[in-house]
Write a structure and sequence with these properties.
Four copies of one chain form a homotetramer. By secondary structure, chain A is α+β, with helices and mostly antiparallel strands. Chain A contains eight helices and 16 strands. Chains in contact: A-B, A-C, A-D, B-C, B-D, C-D.
Chain lengths: 353, 353, 353, 353
Amino acid sequence: MFNLGNFLTLCTLGESHGPAYGGIITNFPAGVSADLEMVQHQLDRRKPGQSNIVTQRKESDKVQFLSGIFDGQTTGTPIGFIIENHNQKSGDYEHLAHSYRPSHADFTYDRKFGIRDHRGGGKSSARETVNWVVAGSLARQILPAEVTIEAYVSSVGDIFCEKPYQDLDLSKTDESDVRCPDPVTAEKMISRIKEIKKEGNTIGGTITCVIRNMPAGIGEPVFGKLQAELAKAMLNINAAKGFEYGSGFCGARMTGKEHNDLFNEDFSTKTNLSGGIQGGISNGMDIYFRVAFKPVATLLRNQQSVDRHGNTVTVEGRGRHDACVLPRAVPIVENLAAFVLADLYLINKLRKI
Amino acid sequence: MFNLGNFLTLCTLGESHGPAYGGIITNFPAGVSADLEMVQHQLDRRKPGQSNIVTQRKESDKVQFLSGIFDGQTTGTPIGFIIENHNQKSGDYEHLAHSYRPSHADFTYDRKFGIRDHRGGGKSSARETVNWVVAGSLARQILPAEVTIEAYVSSVGDIFCEKPYQDLDLSKTDESDVRCPDPVTAEKMISRIKEIKKEGNTIGGTITCVIRNMPAGIGEPVFGKLQAELAKAMLNINAAKGFEYGSGFCGARMTGKEHNDLFNEDFSTKTNLSGGIQGGISNGMDIYFRVAFKPVATLLRNQQSVDRHGNTVTVEGRGRHDACVLPRAVPIVENLAAFVLADLYLINKLRKI
Amino acid sequence: MFNLGNFLTLCTLGESHGPAYGGIITNFPAGVSADLEMVQHQLDRRKPGQSNIVTQRKESDKVQFLSGIFDGQTTGTPIGFIIENHNQKSGDYEHLAHSYRPSHADFTYDRKFGIRDHRGGGKSSARETVNWVVAGSLARQILPAEVTIEAYVSSVGDIFCEKPYQDLDLSKTDESDVRCPDPVTAEKMISRIKEIKKEGNTIGGTITCVIRNMPAGIGEPVFGKLQAELAKAMLNINAAKGFEYGSGFCGARMTGKEHNDLFNEDFSTKTNLSGGIQGGISNGMDIYFRVAFKPVATLLRNQQSVDRHGNTVTVEGRGRHDACVLPRAVPIVENLAAFVLADLYLINKLRKI
Amino acid sequence: MFNLGNFLTLCTLGESHGPAYGGIITNFPAGVSADLEMVQHQLDRRKPGQSNIVTQRKESDKVQFLSGIFDGQTTGTPIGFIIENHNQKSGDYEHLAHSYRPSHADFTYDRKFGIRDHRGGGKSSARETVNWVVAGSLARQILPAEVTIEAYVSSVGDIFCEKPYQDLDLSKTDESDVRCPDPVTAEKMISRIKEIKKEGNTIGGTITCVIRNMPAGIGEPVFGKLQAELAKAMLNINAAKGFEYGSGFCGARMTGKEHNDLFNEDFSTKTNLSGGIQGGISNGMDIYFRVAFKPVATLLRNQQSVDRHGNTVTVEGRGRHDACVLPRAVPIVENLAAFVLADLYLINKLRKI
């Protein structure tokens, strides 16, 4: 209960200022030659300090595998891993021990559990996503080699990448610090983030993810429709506020005549407003979806708030935080999608006898 | 696996043209005086033929309980129910036995399972939602009496209800055939749907759902954040294309300074861009979210398509279908939300010892 | 949660005196030509009134499938079924509404749920096993055709079938009313049951189950070892008190030198004290296990007991009950084993990539 | 899937010769003042080298908690822990890399996964049970303080502790190296084990477990009957061959008149052949059960066997192994039972509203 995945599952441990993060992946098939450098590469794409527009915190984020891989191959038994925490400055958070930061999880954790680890948000910290990147980047290795999963920053605040994904070269995403593959838009986004950062403020945005060459048949109606599983995973990411796939919210403004994707004789469709999914099952066309992220709640400026007794306090803005999480969220979205797809891909193998 | 819910679960049966729909609700607590008239009332809100803007199909949709309720009280054992199908005209669908309708699940079911019940879409039919309405309207009875769950049609095509939900009287939603509580907007929506219907076309829209008086503490990070569980449920509804909560996609355009919800001394917040959820857990403020629905794929006009061999065929437009599913989707959204909330509400009782 | 099975799951509904039993089987693969006569045959093997040593209650036990089977083939969507209850004489049980029958579940259900359906034991009735027989006999059709699952009555009270299963012709089991394939022992058992019945008493016994030709590799360490999954299923049967496999409790008296099964060059083993399972995984040898059943608690003689207020009452012995459930439990054991094996058989297909 | 527990769950990692064992406990309630010394004490009861009748391997088995406990209290978030492996002499096992040891899991793992970690049995090693002891001894702290869970060695080979558990002082169990609370029987058992050890042989036995003061109402029919959940857990222990509760296999020889437990006016029963469980639910009487263990398969003498190509090989008897695992299995049985009970105890809190 409350693991990621249905058959292939990830169960996680770790808190912002505990000794380590980690996880256990269950039901990973045996015989996969695990590319652990790829796993570390994905972790490196997520880690802080990669460029001057993200947080300068230092987190080395080295993953160590504890079980389930032998002589470079998965053994079919649970894959355990940990990522040790270093450079935790718990002292940084003592001033927050009794305060509730606005739009953070401080108040809700306290109400729910009656206790909270206030250091860096404890379990509510977005650092939890290191676990997901490890698991997702391993899970990606279960999928057919031709499947590609590519996410990019499609907007920052009011700056949108206007080109459709088909007109972008997604292999260039990592070339810009903001992970937008359109160089002109990327420049504007970077300037905007720098401005915002100077103000001690933060800014939101959207990430678009495109999955190509996924075979038809993936997804489990009901209640495991492909879009529902993707939405669930994405809305577990800290700061995610919305999810749409295919035509999404725009589709709600259209008529059926405009929206229906007519078939070609090879079963591909002339348009793809369906976003590669019909009836909750992939149809072989590109799967694409978009995730909205709110601006990070931690500001580098003082905010009025309350403590756990309802007394007014000032929450000081200090520490090393992202002015915009979008660039670092790109590998999270990709690898989380990979995990969801790998889970449903395995399950689909049991659908026909 | 692939049930609705985590602890409180719903497992369903039924196909469009089989003898019956039905379901089993597991882990429903004992001792609830079940209001079965309310269940039937919710089913009636969903059924076809309620007004002249929805399909004129006749489905009586009477629920029969088979177990788990004794002398009017739930017994704590599985609640089984069925809704018999009547008036199935399988013959209506014979012309579709080998055709793939555009933007339906015909092709994907065939690819996935190698076999499909073509009559009315079989398992992919939206008639499956009768089960969800039964289960959700029972589950609603687990929640504290003061919790209200109210959905309404907030847009049809390009016609939007511009007022925020706070300015609407949601008790008036059912007074208009289109289930929009703002009479002026409702009129426009109805006219638009009639136009569209006349053309044999269909149209999409959005539903907004507002949950009031939910206690703080509901939702399970990670991976059972309240918004993620709601999103998963909503995106399992046929035709749903997107989900956003609180500030949603608009929040992605904002800065942290604008977006943070500052606390009052009673722990309520001055604004509620968070949508009543912080860190995946309810904070006691209104929970609100919006679901996008694409236009129905079944048109009352001929469409070009292919059969399972890739030959071009004409899919004829005939039968009794909705030009706009939004009004009938309102009780589906509400009762599905009720099920999700009841599940997480029960689980939360075990969080503190 | 609390379904039967892990991937292939059965969720059930029904109570002794409700309108129907039934269930939903999820994740059954598509494309199985379902032999529904075999399902009915297995139900008939379980039903009362088959011979003069079992209860003479009349239960027709006709299964009706509601979904998941189309044109004789499974469609991969949930298989729903019901078995209507007939001939329920609720009045028979009014005298028990407030009494707790000794060694029944009356007291514990009341303590647990605060409410109970006293008519025939409600959910605690062994009639629930009709659902398991339906699901198990369908699941058996997923297994390779050469797999055989054969159970028989190996003891009644102190009368034991002394021959090892290898020396019995298990195809003859149904030829005797008591379902013991050794005619001499069967005669003794039948005489013993008739004696016991005349006294208004009941008697226990054991069932041995033998599974042949199961491929190696089935079972999921940890925590889904084949023997553990079988034990869990068997100990959910009403009246089951113990489970052992292979050498079982006798093995606990042996030394390693005596107990180890040495390999032949074809990987079969010279002995099979392991019972076809090593490390929780089938090894290709015969799987065999034994289940102990206590005597039925319902006697046809008066017993002293208490009501829900602790007052002394007399529980009258009347009604139509089995003096020995063992013969009717044989198909329950077989079909339950089939369900467990089919579930693990499917899962094993995902173990290697 | 394949975790231990239903709501309270344990997911584990680790292999005999990997860097560490560990696990993640999910849904542990917040606010438990965790007695971590008790956890370490239970681990110490399980570890090798405690006396001269068990293996002299040195395993320090120190548990380190990585998350879920803050300032000595559980936080309600996942509890992660690891136990580092030391003193692994992988070289000890090189001679076994291609051999299949008789009655081990070598052959079945190879067939199932196509790959195996041959060092010390990899995942199939009984060292996995360190994880269960950690999780179980924490879970025990959820149960009401008055609940006691006491296991002891009730037989070794043909030497049985003839006294019923009621006549034994179970607080004395740990005073004997063999963990049998009857000093005379304990002496005989120890002598027998020493003899067996001298021969390079091994021997089986049984463990009896007694749970007192468990409230009525625990256990979930169907399919989570208390006895079924206990049986499943116990039969996941390496070398376990059978499980019985209450009258067990003896009950199968009795008549209903002998077997029924008549009620006293306080709802206790005059006898307790039910073993504290009726209809799958605890009734407030002592719960007791017995587990059979086969003799360990690893002998300190040479055995004929085959390699993975079917060639005859000699498996040499060497290393440091237990001649009788029973004494060290006592804390495994107790703590595993504690986990099962805590899981069902929590779930039962949601049964009545």
